[in-house]
Amino acid sequence: MAEELTTSGYIKHHLQNLTFGPKHEELEPGVWTPTGDYGFAMSSGEAAQMGFWSINVDTMFMSILLGGLMMWFFRSVAKKISAGVPTNTQNFAEWIIEFIDDSVRGSFSGGKNTLVAPMALTIFVWIFLMNLMDLIPVDLIPLAVAHGASAVFGVDPHDVFFKIVPTTDPNATLGMALFVFLLMLYYSFKVKGAGGFIGELTLQPFGKWALPINLVLETVTLIAKPFSLALRLFGNMYAGEMVFILIATMYGAGLVLGSFAGLLQIGWAIFHILIITLQAFIFMVLTTVYMDMAHQEHH
Amino acid sequence: MNINATLIGQLIAFAIFVAFCMKYVWPPIMQALEERKKKIADGLAAAERGRHEQELAEKRAQQVIHEAKDQASEIVSQAQRRGNEIVDEAKGTARTEGERILSSARAEIEQEANRARDELRAQVASVALAGAGKILSREIDDKAHTDLLDELVSQI
Asked: Against a cut of 0.80, is the pTM above it?
């Protein structure tokens, strides 16, 4: 089922996750039937047919790999940490942690909460690392994976998809945002009590006589928080990735355009360093702010 | 780009990472940071105290040096005074001693002179008598002339 190498095919190929789930067959164009066994989707159409109970293996693999890397780094620092003269590695870790601690102190006023600051650290570093994958040339790892897979499993390399930037997968960003959302609900109930939280949802902004309107407005506000969180990150990273892919398509268009594409790619990569850091920071700050709002008692 | 179970997987992975960070990463590092903060604060306070003490010690040393200088100059002036006194005393002693020697010498001289005079007086009479006797041995009455000469001698 190898597609012909066209620009749009190239782009589509790069935007498709490596999806594992119930296999489907396309009997005739547009008509899919499940085959009954499980496997990797061989085309974006099949991936779409797999439904909810399939999993993007590349997203999971990259995100857990990067998260594990980060946890390993910080844990190894934490094990050897001393209050004396710090080593270079310790200095680096402390620099990040103090930066996070400062910004959490700046926006979170919910008293003693041992979760928010470590969560902010996890969010910032993890998202930063996941976004950082965007700076690796778009074809490098997907090609390596595709050819590796074709060598090991004997599949057509064109049918192996691999997206190395987990944050360009809305599942990843939504998953994180949902966890933040669950924590928001948890702390809202814990700090304000069920009554207080329901009151907050129904008794403002218009007072108790406009209760249904209040409920609709506040619910939308509440739901919008995790979605804006997830979609902002996803949108920025997806767009950035798309630009990299578009630049990469120029390499096939002759020496002049190719050299121009090289310049463009360097420029966009430098600019992108700012974006990936900024997006990680925004996700972290907004999470902290939402946590703070969950801890605020309204008067 | 489909919403699928990756969502749940990411949620769980995220929760696990957060829990791990919360339990094993954040507390030890924060504790170390706090400890270092305290250490530095203590060190700074100690340095401040040390500087204060040094200042005090310097002041004290200045004072001691000042006192020592005062004492030294006092001792020097005392010594000078004492020296002058000794010199004066020595001068006085020397003068009186000189006077004493002078006067005793004078007395001796006078004594010698008197003795010489007495001797002379005693001899003059006999010498004159002998001379006169030799010259005028015959015609002179010893007795009358001796009286005359004694009278003359007493007038010397």
From this structure: no
